[in-house]
Structure formats: structure tokens, C-alpha cells
Amino acid sequence: MTTNSLSRAPGAMGRLETPETSETAPVLDVVVPVYNEEAGLECCVRRLRRHLDENVPYSARITIADNASVDATLAVAHRLAAEIDGVRVVHLDEKGRGRALRAVWSASDSEVVAYMDVDLSTDLNALMPLVAPLLSGHSDLAIGSRLARSSRVVRGPKREFISRSYNLILRSALHARFSDAQCGFKAMRADVAQRLLPLVEDTGWFFDTELLVLAERAGLRIHEVPVDWVDDPDSRVDIVATAVADLKGVWRVGRALSTGSLPIGSLRDSFGREPLVPGVPRGMVGQLARFAVIGVASTVAYALLYLILHPIMGAQWANAVSLLVTAVLNTAANRAFTFGVRGSEGAARHQMQGLLVFAFGLLLTSGSLYVLHSAAPDVSKHVELAVLVLANLVATISRFIALRWVFRNARPEGAHA
After folding, report:
1. What is the pLDDT of residue 6?
2. Nearest to 177 by CA among 131, 215, 120
3. How far is it, in rounded angstroms, from Cα 226 to Cα 231?
4. Which of 75, 202, 261, 324 has the highest Cβ tally under 10 A?
5. What is the mean pLDDT of the segment spanning 130-145?
6. Which residues are catalytic?
7. Can you give the pLDDT at residue 333?
8. C-alpha–C-alpha distance, residues 113 and 105, integer Å
9. Rg (Cα) of the chain, in Å, rounded?
10. Is the pTM of this model over 0.70?
């Protein structure tokens, strides 16, 4: 019988000592992070091992990741590794679920890495639907979702409210599209993990959320699996402390995305996402939608400014000033939201290039006014405005093409796909 046991190297942050073994690398590595779980660990491992042997047609290993337990958890883990094939132990000297997952996943030799909570609240029948899309190459990450319509969940109203509120916050603050960030039932391709994990800062419960946000912003495909889930009444998670830590994490990640300090553009490039349709650049559909929203707002602002300034300075100057003001704001808005370029680097240059685009729009609209006044000198300002709006629509198409050129070399740090 082969026993696999890993030990934390004293004083080494992120380095694991691995004993030599002749065991073939498994396809799937399921990590069970534990802290002071001496009572429930054996039942979990034996039940999970039995399920893997009977229901998973791939070689699979269980890795017990001990997070600096102070009870007999580590001793129980070593005994299980000695008694059961395909079970190994990793011990870390510091607490933190995220720290344990990053350490084990980073050092794993499997094709797919996964984790589940020691209480096995999630029905194990969801494990194959979780990992199959990763092994087939269809998806990059997979998560169990307790909030999917077809999920069956048993838990108290307080936890239900907290879970849904947290995911609402993620959707509002970080524009996340995944439905359940904190379900303890996730998997990821190992090659994807190697690129994502160095960018994840959190070492606790927010680890999952940060990982998913980075993956989503990098354009990776996240597969969601509806699960059957029964709340563990003996859970020792400090809900208040965890909620506070999560909110701090949301603020930190949101700020990093808004300032462009996270290398999302480089991460996207490293995964090499190609356009689905030849000739349609990646992200163009989303860019068009955001450009249209900003364009509508700019047009409304332009019309209001024009009507306000027309009695003061006349049609041509009212058009020029209104167009200039909205052009500067439009360039800034499209820079940040349409093309996802954040931070101050290159902002002045982008504005100068945006002013060249403004000059073309001014030429087009001023020319339209000149032709209109030549044909009908006494036309009302409302007719003038209608002609200007039509001219601006023509200029808008040119503006979108021009702005794509302006931001062609900029790194979209945190832009949506």
C-alpha cells in the first residue's frame, strides 16, 4: 500500500516538500481543507473515497489539507492516508482555506483540481457533472450553485438571506455573472490554476470569489452545476467575521479593477481567446452595446447644451461648444467602460486623439448647418437640432471605428467581455 504524505517546509511560504513516489499522477485531485475536524474527518474521507471508486471513471486522489489544526486532525489524516489508497496529507503551519487551496492546487500534478467542504453538504452525485466539462476541454472552471433554479437546498432563512445578499453585492459592485461564489464545491483545470492563482491575494473565505472574478474578467468559461445541498448544523464558520472580510475583499478587488492594477489584459492574452466569428474582433459586440448606451447619454447631453447655448451664441458656436464638452466626456466614458482602459497612464494622449475624432464630427455637423442655412436661412433651432442629430449619427459610426483605433494598443484592465 502506498502512503502519500506531504509536509509543510518550516518557514517556507508556498513551498511543499513532496516525498518521492512511484504513483502515477491522477486525473483528478480532490482537496478537503480542514481545521480542527478530528470528529468528522474519517467519515468524510471514507465516504468520498468510496464515491470516487464507484462513480468516477478517472483516477482520483483525495488530498487532506490541514490548516494548522490544534486538535488530533493531523493524526487522523495521517492514519487515513496510511490505511486508504489514494489519500494523502498536506499540513500547513498557518490557517486559511484559500492558503491551503493555493498551496495544494499549485503543487498538484493532476489534470483537474477540485475541492469540497469536509461536511460534504453538497450531494456527491454532482461531482461528475462538475469535472466532466473540464476534462472535455469545454470549460475552464466549474462551480456548484445552490442558487440555480433546479438546485435543492435545505438551510435556514438567515443563511439564505446572507448568501443571496452577498451574490447581489457581487453582481452590483463587481458585475459578476456567476450565481454562487461561496458554495464549497468547485473544480478547475490545473493549467488554468497555474496562471490564476499567483494573482489571488486572499487566503481565507474570499479566495473563491476573487478567483472567480479574475477568471470571469479574463474571459474564461465558468460552468455552473445545480446541486442538492443540506446545511451543516454544526458549522463553525463565524458568519459576521466572514461577511466583513468578504466586503473588504470586494472593495479591494473592485478598486484594483477600476485602477487597472490587475493585469487582466495580459491574462486574457495568455489564454488566447479567439473571436467566434472571423472578422469580428473579440469583445466587439459588448463594446458596441456599451458604446451605444454612452452615445445615447452623450446625444441627450449635447441636445440640452445646444438648446441652452443657442440663444446666447448662435447655432454654429452652440454646436461647437456642446460638441466639444460632450466629446471630452464621451472619450473618458468610452475609455473606461467601452474599452475597459483604467488608470491615468495614456489618458492625456487618448484625449488628444479623441479631440481629432471631435474635429471630424465638428466638420460634419458644422457643414450640415452651413448647407441647411444656405438652403433655408430662417429655419428654427429645432430643425437645426434635428439636422445636427442626424449628422451626429453619421459621425457616431465613424467615432466608434476611430476610438477602436485610439485604444487598439491599450490593455483593457478589467473590461467586460
Report:
1. 46
2. 215
3. 15
4. 202
5. 95
6. 208
7. 82
8. 6
9. 28
10. no
